[in-house]
Amino acid sequence: MIKLPHRLEQAPWLTTPWHEWLQRRQLGRLGHALLLQGPDGCGKEILSEQILTALLCDSGDGCGFCRHCQLLKAGHHPDRIDIGPDGNQIKIEAIRALISRLEGTAHQGGARVVVIDQAEKLNGAAANALLKTLEEPMDGVYLLLLCSAPERLLPTITSRCQRLVVAMPTLTQTNEFIGEASLKLGNWPYWQALLGGPLAMKAAIDSDNIATITQWRKWWRASLKSGLVEPQLAAVDSESAALVLKVLYYELLFIGRSRPQWLAEHYSAIQQVIEKISWLERQSGINLVAVFQQLITAIRQKAQ
Ligand SMILES: [Zn+2]
């Protein structure tokens, strides 16, 4: 449970979109569906928590004292509905359960707020089922769709949502948020490109994922050298698979950073890596050895 405005003070770059949302509300221009878009790790979750609290709270600002705020704090407000991916997809079952829940009335007699996290992971069937809810707005129901890759959403979904954009914070804001731990990162533009904004970078530092990723990087180098995928790379869980491949992508850019000719020769192999990243972000249960080996082979064939 995120308390604000305290949280906004920690992530001051969210103040701009927050004020934009408040202004829309003051002007009576809030749509029933909001697409909250921005890179991973930039605090979309913090902002959506603030918006959700403002929509449910009796005084409209997250007073902290009304019964809605109390229920939110306790972590079980009955008119807050959270949906997110199961594995790497938001499946139709989750949307069907949502629709049947919305057919009832609000437990607390106020608004109902649905938060759909990582909306880009809605699979085709789920997205089509959600479309009907977006087309026929219900009184007092608000949908907040959090999304870091809006281009992956159906245009029929995005066209029915208002947008609110969270931008990547500045270098100063990022360093202030991460604090002293940012010193541990070293080449932080690399980490920002790979992981996303300050929240993602801080989480990676706190959970020691930096060391894990550094190890992946070494294994990719070894694989590129030998032509055979290091088995440890393919042993990761399917939720980390796309990130593992992203590490390869940035490794290739690193190798080609001062070799435009090399980059040109490997353009199509690098494109294949990008396509597989996007594909793996939405798939589970894939034979990663085969996928990774195919890419390593494609990259090495180009080198000959
Ligand atoms: Zn309140």
From TrEMBL:
Its EC number is 2.7.7.7. The keyword Nucleotidyltransferase applies. It comes from the Bacteria. One of its GO terms (cellular component) is DNA polymerase III complex. InterPro entries: DNA_pol_HolB, DNA_Rep/Repair_Clamp_Loader, P-loop_NTPase. Keywords: DNA-directed DNA polymerase, Nucleotidyltransferase, Transferase. Gene3D superfamilies: P-loop containing nucleotide triphosphate hydrolases. It catalyses: DNA(n) + a 2'-deoxyribonucleoside 5'-triphosphate = DNA(n+1) + diphosphate. One of its GO terms (molecular function) is DNA-directed DNA polymerase activity. One of its GO terms (biological process) is DNA-templated DNA replication. Pfam families: DNA_pol3_delta2 (PF13177). This is DNA-directed DNA polymerase. The lineage of its organism: Bacteria, Pseudomonadati, Pseudomonadota, Gammaproteobacteria, Alteromonadales.
